[in-house]
Amino acid sequence: MQAKDNKMEHIGKIVAYLILAINAFFVGTLILSAYSPYLNPKLNPLSSGLGLAFPLFLILSYQQDTEQPPSSLFFLLVMYIEKYIEKPRHIEFQILADKYGNTIHLGERDCSIQRNHQKLVEESPSPALNDELRKRMGDTAVAVAKAVNYENAGTVEFLLDKNDNYYFMEVNTRIQVEHGITELVTGVDLIKEQIKIAAGESLGIKQEDVRIHGAAMEIRINAENPEKNFAPNPGTIKNIHIPGGNGVRIDTAVYSGYTIPPFYDSMIMKVMTYANDRKTVIEKMRSVLGEIIIEGVTTNTDFMYDICQNEKFIKGDVSTDFIPEEYPQVCKK
User: Fold this and answer.
1) Choosing from 174, 220, 249, 278, which is the catalytic residue?
2) In angstroms, rounded to a whole number, what is the distance separating the alpha carbons of residues 90 and 160?
3) pTM here?
4) Is-catalytic flag, 211?
């Protein structure tokens, strides 16, 4: 925030938050009709805020319980239809936009590996995108932001199907957990740029100045038990060892003696690695995960190490169904 004439300037204007109400219906329809013929129809309450996360579930729940359709859970009866995308990749583009109409993207992050519809692994660039598709999706992300006069750092999110058709999901009007890997591959300090935007400064970087160098990956270390459907495991950390090294960035606030409360998200550490290529990034990630020691609480560290050895993961052959398909034993209810 910025003090100005005894008032506070919020990072992220009010218009940014209005996107949460209009993006999936109005912006998605208007923008993607110009950039992609593949709109995403599904039955969903316009006011639900659920976006595209549970398309099949909502359709089935409506069919199975016609006395209480999804709209009865919310305050509007307006419904819109979206398409169910089978085994998509989750691709998001980092954007920056100032109040002078300057908007850029800083490449994509592939967030396809998820559990319970929450991200576990993010990487940049995505192994699924070529230069032509990256440009089309990046241009669409910028167009979405400009259509609503967006002003802030943010993320435009898409689903990508097996035929390289992409579908608009939502705009996250904030800095995201995984922003660090974009910083690693672009050299741009996103937090600094966000604060400068809030202070009324214009972007100091143009689209043609953005360059992606090398590859980066982030793995979220959570205090949870993968063998119990990733149930949270709060408690006190008795001993911890956090490794480091060239091309390693670890963001955390925990320490030996720290008590993880049960009231918040279970993530306790973000492990990021950077190298010239994806293969080296994965090798470095395995090395780092193998050195992490967290005693006193159960974490997903060993499970994430196993993922880094999975042949499909190493090949980049993943979707949002990767964990249920490759590790069905951990997804039992």
Assistant:
1) 174
2) 6
3) 0.81
4) no
